[in-house]
Amino acid sequence: MVRVALLSLVERTERQPDGALGELLVGGRPLIGHQLAQALALGCRRIVILVDQSIADLAPLRNAAERVGAQVHTIGSSIDLVPLVTPADELIVLADGLFASPEAVLALLAQEQGVLCFPIDEGLAAGFERIDINRAYAGAMHLPGRLVSRLADLPGEWSVPSALMRLAVQAGVPLRPAPAQLLAAGGWRLLSSEADAHRAEEDWVRMHVPAGEIAMPGAWLANLGVRTLGPTLLHAGTRPALIGVGAGLLSLLGVGAGWLGATSIGLVLVGLAWLVARATDLLAEIERAALIRPAVRFRTDGLLDWFFDALFVLLCAWRIEGAANSSFGAPSFAPALFAPLVLFGLLRLIPRMAARTNGRRWRLSWIADRLIAAFVLAVASVALPFGAAVALIALALLGVSLLVTATGDPSSPNPPLTNGE
Asked: How far apart are CA 332 and CA 326, in angstroms?
């Protein structure tokens, strides 16, 4: 048994008769590429694309399929599909112009066979085809391969996906309701124009970037930037790796400024680099969720967090050493590292302590915001004796950590379990 996918590049856009719906760009990649990625994730190893004569360049789709061991076939009519699907096969059909959330597609089509449908009012309003008086076709099906042979008895000019849907209904394939909230949330829609594709990008980004209350100002700014500029960047084909290079350049500029004695500027630049890295990670997560290909992941809660902290410590140590009027190689550089190391160690430790002792990490999550740390230290570098300021901030954080520990409930090693929560 082989799982086969049927995709289409036939329907035309509203305002560009020469362009196919599947060629509309969503997130910098054609819609048909999104559907191909979903088909491959569903385990399809034979991809059949219904095309017309004006569609010629399918090399990128072929290459993407061949990388995972799948084959791409192009057909021009229903009769061409018959020999490609045996009665023992399973057929996944995605409608021309359908842009759907990969999570929803995998959840609804991976296991059970059926014709997905919406309530008639919501479905027709969203542009989907009517099935009967109560239901509208949702643009996706999981069918037994035996139905395909019946296409040979139909006129060749019929729409292949529509004909398959009718044959499935007549053969008693179950009509499986798809959650109507997918339509309201923008996670399941038919695209008909480039304007629809732009709206789909905006909704797609907002679905994957939280918009609720965020305690860390830096994280809030990163989210706001991605929600505002993310659709434009992705539509233009800007990959997260390119933005990550920008974060690296800001870091280098910050280190260079600190080396030349402009510690405040260096700290601010490194803080901005941390902010850009967070935005890069969000864009990479959006790409990963689209299933197009494994996204380059610049995770700021992993190694890069340590990298940025190391830069902050280095800049602070240079500033403390410079205030002591000693050269870089002098023995005083090692003592200059002590207070910054303690400071950033506490910045990492306190949120974790709060989460493990009383479960109120959200109240102290702002402490982990490196943008705040950068600006506070930059102001201290200009307005205060820097070494003393770093030491006092570290002492204040030490007091906070003691307070968190004292107000926690250490009576049980696992309070949620032992308290019955």
From this structure: 7
